[in-house]
Amino acid sequence: MIQLAESLVVAAPVFAPKLVVAYIDPGTGSMLFQVALAAILSITVAWRQLRARFKLFFAKPDALPPAPTAAAPTAAAPVAPPADPPATP
Amino acid sequence: MTPAIDHPASFRDPSGFVYRRDGVLLRQIEPVYAEDWRALVASGLMTRLQDAGTLVRHEEADLALAARPGAVAVLRPEVIDTISHPFEWAFSQLKDAALLTLDVAEQALGAGMVLKDASAYNVAFHQGRPVFLDTLSFERRVEGSPWVAYRQFCQHFLAPLALMSRVDIRLSQLLRVHVDGVPLDLASALLPTSSWFTPGLLMHVHLHARSQRKHASDAAAPAAPAAPTSFSPQAFLGLLESLRGAITGLDWNPVGTEWADYYQRNNNYGSDGLEHKAAVLGAMLDRVKPATVWDLGGNTGRFSRVASARGARVVTWDVDPACVEAHWREVRRAGETTVLPLLLDLTNPSSGMGWAGEERDGLAGRGPVDCVMALGLVHHLAISNNVPLGRVGRYLAQLGRTVILEFVPKEDSQVVKLLATRKDVFPDYHRAGLEAAFAPYLALEEAVDIPGMTRTLYRFRAL
Questions:
Q1: CB contact under 8 A, A30 and B150
Q2: Helices (H), B125-254
Q3: What pLDDT, on a 0 to 100 scale, did the predictor assign at position B27?
Q4: N- or C-end of chain B: fewer Cβ atoms within 10 A?
Q5: For an interface test with A, which of B45, B207, B211 has the most A Cβ atoms less than 10 Å from its Cβ?
């Protein structure tokens, strides 16, 4: 398993990350490693959202949560800021 | 108007800097940050974070107060009582600061921005909760870019928490040596083999460290042709969720240390001793009326609360990670806002750190406070650590304008225990010796014997 996971690290440079000028050193290895993980991370979020939608679909009306769960931001559409929080007492 | 004095730690980020003018803390925003500043305000992110108490509040100040020409804005941030350092935090404090940082990063992502740094020094503990300090840590997100602060987050939070949880709680002190967080190759080498089977640690520490090593000399890699969807917002969110899972999966419970259950085990005070001591202490505090107090060797803060009940803002310093952990959990559970537990070895106190040794203040640099309490402590300093009483007095006079000190005589069972296995080389360790040794630095105001005990509570004024 470890060897399989390490192979992801080796495969990382296939997609180089977009040039970012940061004031701190983000570390080349750290940036490439995130790109290597991108597919796994995306699938994890997609799976969680899909599961949440299934639960919502099959949930009894009285078991529904009071507010819909926030959708993850997508690349195509910029994310609108969430609604303002309720005023503090 | 007096000249501006730059804060010694505020020089890395060209977006702005912190300085003092006429004793007031101010933050200047530089032109290079103007567009990000406008985006931060327009997105509503800043207001949301401030309304939630997550980000330190500020007022916009007059541009005439700018330290240098060209300022886009000048902010006057809310004053934080005590700036503490990550190696002074209990396990749960570092964990709470990590989760706060991830919350801030996720909210920034939702607003089309990114948290551009993830230093633990961007977090302070204020009024019983962690708060994010750096208002300029946000920038507009470059589409397709991974998290530039990923390495820093892992070094400042995940690696030390993993080491504290899975190896030894005392490894938090690695943060004292490594100002930019624990290097991941070091953390990977120190963590046990079992940590390779914990997905969060495998991914974000072990494999991350290998990737760093593999690409250590690839300086040109980020400038390679960009893949537009190389790191989608979905992947970014997944990364933050994965890090949150790794952090929440780490735990440490304070058991079995020397001091964590001191009051329960120790019968020296008797049933009424603690109450008598609290009453004498309370009367002294009523005469001083301190606004700020440091309770040195304060254990889980029993006597800190005698001061906080009188309106003082108290930091309880203790050498035992278990005490600080238990104390922080209690502060958090009770929602207390005036007591802050922190870790400190008074025989080797936090010193100036970072560039020129002045980026991060040591203990004395954060004082003096109105009142320092040293209860049940002097025998550990003078006998266990052989510090001459005069030096104890001199240091306490640096830390507080008033010093309340409990003298524990040689007849006390705790001192008998300390001397049982060693030669008594402390001929001047008695009340008259203490008063004479302290005299050059501290003026004696009052001395009260604690009823039912052999101990005496002293109140001194720093000279």
A1: yes
A2: 150-153, 159-166, 174-177, 184-190, 199-201, 208-214, 233-248
A3: 95
A4: N
A5: B211
